[in-house]
Specification:
With about 150 residues, the protein is an alpha/beta fold. It has two domains: about 45 residues, N-terminal domain of TfIIb; about 100 residues, GMP Synthetase, Chain A, domain 3, CATH 3.30.300. Helix content is about 30%, strand content about 30%. Strands 4, 5, 6 and 7 form a four-stranded mixed beta sheet that branches. α1 packs across α2. The protein is elongated. About 20% of the residues are buried. InterPro entries: KH_dom-like_a/b, OsmC-like_firmicutes, OsmC/Ohr_fam, OsmC/Ohrsf, OsmC_Ohr_Peroxiredoxin. This is SACOL1771 family peroxiredoxin.
């Protein structure tokens, strides 16, 4: 088994309405509570990073799945939406929905239509973030074949 550590350093000073930082190998960003939730709205926030992680993981997994299935000239444009709720004094990410717009070589589009649902499921099963949040956050895939 191969293991890999992903390390970040976060810093925060003060109460809930302050601004902190998150820093990793490549990420270097300010963090705060979103403005829409009564915070500073500066930099990014954990909710946005969770949706970003899920979206980027899924799009990479989908591209790899399509490539392994023999598709060429793959282009994917994806929007992802995280839906959170506040109940009993707690926030919870309920669902993340990915809306991939998939475009492949014209010679393969008809074949992809037949196989798309199976390939989308394979990509989700191979996505590390989807696997990490399973049974806690629902992940939906709403594809469009361009």
């Amino acid at each position: 088994m191969v293991k890999h550590d992903f390390k970040v350093v976060t810093q925060w000073k003060g109460g809930r309405n302050e601004i902190g930082t998150v820093q990793g190998d490549l990420i270097n960003e300010q963090i705060s509570i979103p403005y829409s939730l009564g915070g500073q709205g500066i930099g990014t926030n954990p909710d946005e990073m969770l949706v970003s992680a899920a979206s980027s993981c899924y799009i990479i997994s989908l591209a790899a799945t399509l490539e392994r299935a023999g598709y060429k000239d793959i282009r994917i444009n994806q929007q992802s939406v995280g839906t959170a709720s506040f109940e009993n004094g707690k926030f919870k990410m309920e669902c993340i929905t990915h809306y991939p717009k998939i475009n492949v070589d014209n010679n393969h589009k008809d074949n992809l239509k037949k196989r798309l649902l199976k390939l989308l499921k394979i990509a989700d099963n191979n996505c590390m973030i989807s696997n990490a949040i399973k049974n806690n956050v629902e992940v939906r895939i709403e594809p469009t074949l361009v």
